[in-house]
Amino acid sequence: MKTEKASFETYLKQQGFTKSSIKTRLAVIGCYLKWLEKQGLQAEEVTYNDLLIYIKHSQRKGVSQRTVQSYLGTIKHYYDHLIREGKTTVNPAEDIKIKGVKRKTLYHIFEPHELHQLYNSYKDESLIGKRNKVMLGLLIYQGLKTEELAKLETTDIKLREGKIEVPGGRRSNHRTMNLESHQVLEMYDYILQARPEILMESGQQTDKLFISLTGKESTISNLTNSFIKPLKAQNKNLLNTKQIRASVITKWLKQYNLRETQYLAGHRYISTTEGYKQNDMEGLVEEVNMFHPLG
Fold first, then answer.
1. Which of 5, 20, 86, 258 is most buried (CB neighbours < 10 A)?
2. Which parts of the chain fold into alpha helices (H)?
3. If you average pLDDT over every residue of the chain, what do you get?
4. What CATH architecture applies to the domain 2-103?
5. Which CATH superfamily is domain 112-277 in?
6. Dist. CA 153–CA 206, nearest whole Å
7. What separation in angstroms does the CA of 160 have from each of 65, 75, 98, 163?
8. What's the CA gap between 46 and 222, in Å, rounded?
9. Within a 10 A sphere around the Cβ of 102, how many other Cβ atoms?
């Protein structure tokens, strides 16, 4: 069992889990392997029905539905690890859902080409329009949160390098990200032409990258709403900026591993990144999962 757990530990490290998360997951697998041993089962031989029995066993011990769901997530990882090792070809935990667990699912997820279309559909050559286009680009191509847009200053933009320094915060990490080539041109135009004109017209003096034309202190939500509202009128699937970010992170997960995606998203914890791996991630509501098998 020690060898099996050590091998799984290596897998978890490769997936980018934190030390505390690895410790917890190893404890869960240790209990699971002990149960298999008592049942006379090898992990590689376990079937869907065997796992249902194990889950029922956990419930009889008073384990909550949410904790059982957490156990199941670790067991899924364990079988993904065994598949990678060539010890089995099937993940028996793949199709099991825990009934009665309220979970937050995400939104309609835009495909990369849909995100690009969304970006191209915004056309406004006014001063505010040029500011908005730059903000929209940072949402769509760098997956920034609105509060990160609010923190940006002109010194965070490295036009020559084609990069942006995204400041960290209480719940997010600092990261350096590449700008798309068309973003560099639009950022150049905004910083050197449009933004100075906005400053002059509004009478402001600030290093903030994004500012209002009125001269009044505007919240970042007011600034983003000025382009999200017209975009929503054009695209019925668009709900808000969080949906755009969820779509970008989903795209990254298909391109990069968990640790790389965690960095790009600025997530403090790998578990936050992992939360975006739900299949298809449809719908924005808190819903009760009604799938088979457990009540």
1. 258
2. 2-14, 19-39, 48-60, 65-84, 112-121, 127-141, 146-151, 181-189, 195-202, 220-234, 241-255, 258-265, 270-274
3. 85
4. Orthogonal Bundle (1.10)
5. Intergrase catalytic core (1.10.443.10)
6. 9
7. 53, 47, 51, 8
8. 54
9. 10
Give the C-alpha separation, 191 to 197, whole Å: 10
Total length of the chain: 295
**What pLDDT, in 10s, does the model give residues 204-233?**
889 999 998 886 666 788 899 999 999 999
165 contacts: CB under 8 Å, gap ≥ 6: 156, 157, 158, 174, 176
DSSP 8-state secondary structure symbol assigned to residue 102: E
- Residue predicted with more confidence, 278 or 174: 174
- Indicate the domain borders of the chain: 2-103, 112-277
- Does the pTM of the predicted model rise above 0.90? no
| Residue 258 CB neighbour total at 10 angstroms | 20
pLDDT digits (tens, 9 = 90+) for 59-99: 888 888 888 888 888 998 999 898 888 888 878 887 676 65
